[in-house]
TrEMBL record:
It is a multi-pass membrane protein. It is found in: Membrane. Signal peptide: none annotated. Keywords: Membrane, Transmembrane, Transmembrane helix, Transport. The keyword Cytoplasm does not apply. It comes from the Bacteria. This is Aquaporin. It holds the Pfam family MIP. The chain crosses the membrane at residues 14-34, 41-60, 90-110, 137-158, 170-189, 212-231. InterPro entries: Aquaporin-like, Aquaporin_transptr, MIP, MIP_CS.
Length: 252
């Protein structure tokens, strides 16, 4: 069978990215909003890790399984992904994330009286700092956390998905566990973004403060991803020789 017959089309890849981001947002944010008081921080962190793991194995072989604009940018900076394809991926991810929170809202319309209003008044699991931070952390803490944790996340992804040095079929597990760890460490700081599509999706329904603070969770995960991509390329790839991304579950 020819490569043309087996290579997914651009449209198929974009649908896969939208579906993966939808799963991440719907599953993990849904857990935070509906069951957060029951499962706590550990349960919410696991929800993020498990949904990304499932998405990687389901749709990673089609699109590479980014499901996150910061990951797309980080891979492009590392030479693993074409910059020309990044805008389409990012748009698909934002649409998928927004669909996830929209469906949570639709479910909430048929929930207990006052549930949806309370969820929105509480910020709808949006990212935030200052008064919107779960632990009362300020803007500086949010900026440092988003740069640092996104950079760590992208570096792990680039390492475990390397065509020669990577962990082959276990990459999705490593990525899912890394995302779980990141949420365990940073939910108290700013509700953990490391993913602008996730932040946009919740801010849409989180009220004025969430929208006003959204810029932090758009800018600084991208900064962290760029730092990681460029650092990986400089330190771990031979000069002038950057390997292509493998076909299976490449990234978050």
């Amino acid at each position: 069978m020819s490569d043309a017959a087996t290579t997914p089309s651009t449209a198929t890849k974009l649908v896969a990215e939208a579906l993966g981001t939808f799963l991440l947002v719907f599953g993990a944010i849904g857990t935070a909003l509906v069951a957060g008081e029951v499962v706590g921080v550990l349960g919410i962190a696991l929800a993020f890790g498990l949904t990304i793991l499932a998405g990687i194995y389901a749709w990673g072989p089609i699109s590479g399984g980014h499901f996150n604009p910061a990951v797309t940018v980080g891979l492009a900076a590392a030479g693993r992904f074409a910059w020309k394809d990044a805008p389409g991926y990012i748009i698909a991810q934002i649409i998928g994330g927004a669909l996830g929170t929209t469906l949570i809202v639709l479910i909430g319309l048929f929930g207990p009286e006052g549930w949806l209003t309370a969820a929105q008044d509480g910020g709808f699991a949006s990212n935030g700092f200052g008064g919107a931070s779960p632990g009362g952390f300020g803007l500086g803490a949010a900026i440092i956390a988003e740069i640092l944790f996104t950079a760590i996340f992208v570096l792990i992804i680039l390492g475990v998905t390397h065509p020669q040095r990577g962990t082959a079929g276990f990459a999705g597990i490593a990525i899912g566990l890394t995302l779980t760890l990141i949420h365990l460490a940073s939910i108290p700081i700013d509700n953990t973004s490391v993913n602008p599509a996730r932040s946009i999706a919740t801010a849409l329904y989180g009220g004025g403060e969430a929208l006003l603070q959204l810029w932090v969770f758009l800018v600084f995960p991208i900064v962290g991803a760029l730092v990681a991509g460029l650092l990986h390329r400089a330190l771990f790839e031979p000069k002038g020789s950057v390997p292509p991304a493998p076909k299976e579950a490449r990234v978050k």
